[in-house]
Amino acid sequence: MTRIGITGGIGCGKTYVCQLLQQRGIPVYQCDDEAKRLMTESPVIRKQLRKLIGAEAYTPSGLNKPLIARYLFADQRHAECINSIVHPVVRQDFLQWTLQQDAPIVVQECALLFESGFQDTVDITVEVYAPLHLRLQRAIQRDNATAEQIQARMAQQMDEEEKRQRADFCILNDGTTDLDAQIDQLLTQIEKSPNQK
Known about the structure:
Elements: E1 2-7, H1 14-23, E2 28-30, H2 31-41, H3 43-53, E3 58-59, E4 62-63, H4 65-74, H5 76-99, E5 105-109, E6 124-129, H6 132-143, H7 147-155, H8 160-166, E7 169-172, H9 179-192
Parallel strand pairs: 1-5, 1-6, 2-5, 6-7
Antiparallel strand pairs: 3-4
Helix pairs in contact: 2-5, 3-5, 4-5
């Protein structure tokens, strides 16, 4: 099995690229979605978040999302504290998930692939790249947010050029370059050198 890590900044279109891979029968593990699930379901996360934030981190109906959001955005160090609780559980969950798959290729979609150290859980890293003006435009429309809000979120992530240099493969999603052709090229490369790890 070859594990591909798909990353990219806000508005780059990594989720769309993952959908194209899913259409080809390739299973995709979406770290953001699974992290949200695990923050509700994992006893380890629940215990540590209560210890960090207080018992009010959870309500009878589940995770206290407004409180968690306020805590997260109050200070960059708060985000690091929560990530240090959530990321190890997500990492383990992904590794368990891969054991349950019988496909020759699986994908992990992870916005913070390099920031979280999750590049160590995959064999090939892929950066989905788009020009800044396009990323801004897409994210503003998708999230119904202001340019300032999106730029503030972008500033908390690793620089796109650095991600591009660190990735094994880059998919350009500029609205004109053929995505399917680039995915074909990626899959051909994997077939030529399977299980790089």
